[in-house]
Amino acid sequence: MENMVKPTEDDRLIIGCWTEGKVLDRGTFGSITLWHNTKTQETIALKKCLRGVAEMTDKLQERWVQEVEILKKLDHPNVVKGLPVPEPLLVLASSLPFLAMEYCSGGNLRKVLQRPENSCGLHERDVRCVLSDVTAGLQYLHSNHIIHRDLKPENIVIKEVDGKAVYKIIDLGYAKEFDQSSLCNSFVGTLQYLAPELFEKKPYTRAVDLWSLGILAYEVITGQRPFSPTASPAQWIPLVHNKKSGDIRGDIAPNGERCYWKTLPSETCLTSVFKKDIEKWLQILLETQPEQRSRHCGLTVFEILEKLLAQPTVHVFCIGTMSVVSVAFNSEDPFMDSLSLALKDATDLAPADQLLLTESGRVADVKYIKDHYKRFQEAGEVMLYLIDTSDDGHKEEESLWLQQLHYCTTRLSDNRTYLKSIEIRREWAVAAYTVRQSVHTFQNVPRAFRSFQAHLSSEIPALQKALSSIHVDVNKLTAMMKVVHESYTTDVEFLQDWKRSKGVSSADTASLLKQWCACDDLLSDVYNQRKKVEYYFNKFNKLCTILEESQRTPYGQCTPLEILDDIMARMLQLYEKGKQKRDYASVSSTCMDMCGTIRELDQEQERVMKHVSPYMRSMLGVYHELGNLHHSIKKLSNRIVSISQDLSTKQRQRQQSIWNLLRSESTYVQPVVPSPRDQTLLPAVDCSTSWSSLCQQMDEQLKESRAQCNEADTVFELVDANIAKLEKECSELLKSMTTK
Fold first, then answer.
1. d(CA 35, CA 604)
2. Are residues 132 and 266 in the same domain?
């Protein structure tokens, strides 16, 4: 009685602990229903046949049984797993077996592609995930000698695992087991995804899955199939058969001419590097000759894609051109040089004028890129920000996306596009895509603003330290100059006294005074250096004030531009509603509403740039001033060292001249010691008069120097007090900048 079938009020069945849920999918012959175990919380998808054996052909019965048998033996994370049918649910059994499968709650890929935000294909990060998972699952099937034969978005389901979407292949009803050398002849599958050899009913191999993979990949990337997606089979089948090797898309012009391209359309969410690589891969998959589809240059298509997906890529937002530049990263090459040249090609910005910053404002280097590129690549986000540091940097130019927005309004305003609803719907899709991409790109503006701001702020502490150091040095130099000057003045006075006492002429001491005067000539130079330090401090404080003001702006905060997001959401709603309309009046109304929304986006972006641009130019001026200040302080520091050395040299030279003078005087007054015979003949002479006089002068000079040293100590104390006050003011200013 435990497994008795009990209907609920809403006609859902309860069998034991299992409760019937919603119908996930329903086809001509079968349905997939959700079942939930209220005891174990397990959820499964149960596929059962809606028809009896008598109503189904032998082929259909074979397909049904075959899918059950194939799923039982497969086990891969990218292929939906077959499960044993819970025993209580066996009471629902019919003549054909049930198929229990793991439940994938994310729906199928077709529903994802139908979302308005994916009007021109998925975001690159999602494209990478889809291709990685689907090719892994398909490669597994082929390694188990199974051809799927019906690969399409409806047969790719999504399951969330650890917060990440995992894509899985389902519906193996058309799958066929094969030997390595076998060829198949049955014509099955969805027409739009079938390989050319199937149209001709030729024998085929697993290469048919590779063609379907190419069609699916193209649709995931662009939002539509590659060969005239809106045309009838009678039109696009010849289009496929007549394409040349390397063509990956084609369409029929209004005059009936067939047109082909070897590249993807511009309306995709792929970055330039990945786009070029994936185009080459699609050229292999979409070869009409099946033998050319599986390998290229010795590698299988699976190996080529694996290598392509593993290629590290760096995305750089260039605020000057409002564009994102992508560059393949190779840590073994001189990558920064390659990146700089690639940015020059994309922006016409000379390497010397490129400032490449991380999101935190740090100057980018190879180590940072190597350590962090994977996180940004998986998220599909910009990693670096390029600032134009040239003299005319941050000049306002019309961005590529702004040009695209203007083009969209022109197309939507053209009444001729209303003639075919299919064409206008594609115009709507492109318009929705353009608005979405424009908003996503523009959201990088405040991020670049904050990155540049953080970079400038990071330069302040080092500059503050350099200024404090130079302030100490110039005050020490001032004190030293004062001591030297006082010594010089005293020496000159004593020299004049000595000259008068000895009756020495001015001509005899002129050269000595001239030599001493050279030391005092540095006095004005020291004064000039002090004025420069004062000037640099004032300039530094002004630059800090400018930075502080920039942090008060909304763009200096970590808040998104919500108005732009709102405009984008309204545009996507217009597109979604427009797809359901058929009459001319509704189509015309949708076109006008879209044009109005695009103009609103244009005006809002213009308003933001009018606010951001002056601050960016102001911060660019700060950037140059900080660089000049660093250079000036270094130059001033060298000059102070040079003056100090000159002072020391000249002071030593003056002291040397004094000692030379003393030695000459000592020689001049050297007493002659008489012989005992002469002592009685010569009178006593006082020989110590001049020598004692000079010694007395030196004692007085020494006392004066000591007094001056004491005075210098007082000066140093004042210097230390001034430095402490200065550092406190700078610290408070920096603190106010970092907290805002």
1. 49
2. yes
Residue 27 has pLDDT above 70, yes or no: no
- The amino acid occupying position 60 is L
Q: Are 79 and 116 part of one and the same domain?
A: no
Q: Which phi-psi region, left, alpha or beta, contains residue 4 (left: φ > 0; alpha: ψ -120 to 50)? A: beta
Same domain, 129 and 60: no
The residue type found at 641 is V
Residues, the chain: 740
Is residue 78 within 8 Å of 168, Cβ to Cβ? Answer: yes
Residue numbers of the domain that contains 370? 319-397
**What pLDDT, in 10s, does the model give residues 462-504?**
898 998 888 888 888 888 888 877 777 777 777 777 777 766 6
For residues 660 and 705, membership in a common domain is answered with: yes
Residue positions annotated with a catalytic role:
150
The residue whose two tokens read 């523009």 is 442
What is the model's pTM? 0.79
Contact (CB, 8 A) for 686 and 693: no
Q: Are residues 660 and 701 in the same domain?
A: yes
Report the candidate in 21, 327, 306, 326 with the shortest Cα–Cα distance to residue 139.
Answer: 306
CA distance 396 to 613: 8
d(CA 129, CA 135): 10
Strands 384-388 and 313-318: parallel
Residue of 163, 161, 214, 167 whose CA lies nearest to 192 = 214
| Residue 78 half-sphere exposure toward CB, CA atoms < 13 A | 14
Distances (CA, A) of 528 to 198, 542, 639, 643, 649: 90, 21, 11, 12, 20
Q: Which of 311-315, 426-430, 640-644, 724-728 has the lowest mean pLDDT?
A: 724-728
- Which whole number is the average pLDDT over 141-160? 92
The secondary structure element, H or E, covering residue 502 is helix 444-502
Beta strands in 153-252, from DSSP E residues, in sequence order: 156-161, 164-169, 176-177, 249-252
Burial of 349 (0-12, 13-18, 19+ CB in 10 A): buried
- Alpha-carbon gap, residue 542 to 536, rounded angstroms: 10
**Of 32, 30, 28, 29, which Cα lies nearest the Cα of 20?**
32
Residue 49 lies in a domain: yes
